[in-house]
Amino acid sequence: MSLLPFTTIFILIISLCSMGLFQGYKSTTYATSAFTTYLDSFTSVTNSIEATYFKKIKTIKNESELNQVPGEITKNSPPSDKKQPNQEQSNSPSDRGKEIAITCSSHLTQVENRSSTHKKSPRSDKTYITFRIRNQSDNSKLNIAKLFTKKDPILEQALIHLIDDFYQDTPAFQDIKIDKGNLSANLVKALIKNGKKLNPEDLTLNRIDLQSPQLQKVWHKILQGTRNYNLKDKTGWPPLSHFVLIDIDPNHKPICIKKTSIPVLKAFFGEAITEMILKEEKEKFYSQPNKPSPLSKAEFEKFLERVNFTHVKNYIDYQYNKKTQTVLSHMHSDTGVIADRIMFEGSNSEKFIKQ
Pick from 266, 293, 22, 246: which is nearest to 165 by CA? Predict the structure, then answer.
């Protein structure tokens, strides 16, 4: 009787067991690597949040010390009972009145000196930097929630323009073998069509399946972004979530004009009107030093009438969204694993800091 069949079966069983063990080891290694690198990234982004809060605490502490009049008694500085050397204590009413007058005069002089020392320099001496490049909270983003409840050509075109501006000339678009001219429009149409299938509570950018392998590949690259990007130098490309969000709160309009980022302004208003908005804000910065740089509701509505763009009034919010949040993220340098953490503006942590 030949042993060849038994040997073959034995080798086959050993091979299958070895393959199963190897795959299990490989999966475990990948899972361990992903978990440990995620923890590293999570720790880094947590440290960033703590550093942000620490700076706020330090700033508030410095401001409170700055606003304290020298010699003033505060909760943290109990009055001293020590007597000055070589100083006789006077008991007569006239002498005590003179002491009080001298002390008040001294305090008034100190207050005047402090206010003159810390007086703000006029804005004409400052270099203007628009506040719109320093903000990446929810208030700075384009809220596209309305696209999933009713047809909205204005908001749809704004999203198409934003995707074109960011990704049309990047590898995210170049690697796809379909018509590049209509790619942004096809993405947005697929996004709206398939987003309507989800429950409103589940609507997020990364949960929408476009039901097309080619479009989904592009969509994944758009959501992922590159490790580093610079909009000015056109290096890399940003994750779409840095400039777009879906917030189903009916009070959160598509545009918060006092915080909107420049790329979102260009996508919504066009480049020419955006430049005019930035110019108006710059002129207000220099001409009205006692007022904030963003245009007020009345000023912006007059501006819209002047540029014949009043049809977008219902899209614009002139108040800050109180639920706004800032997403801080960190990508691990070796594996590319990303950890995101949300830092809410107006959260309990910040309320505690301000107390």
Answer: 266
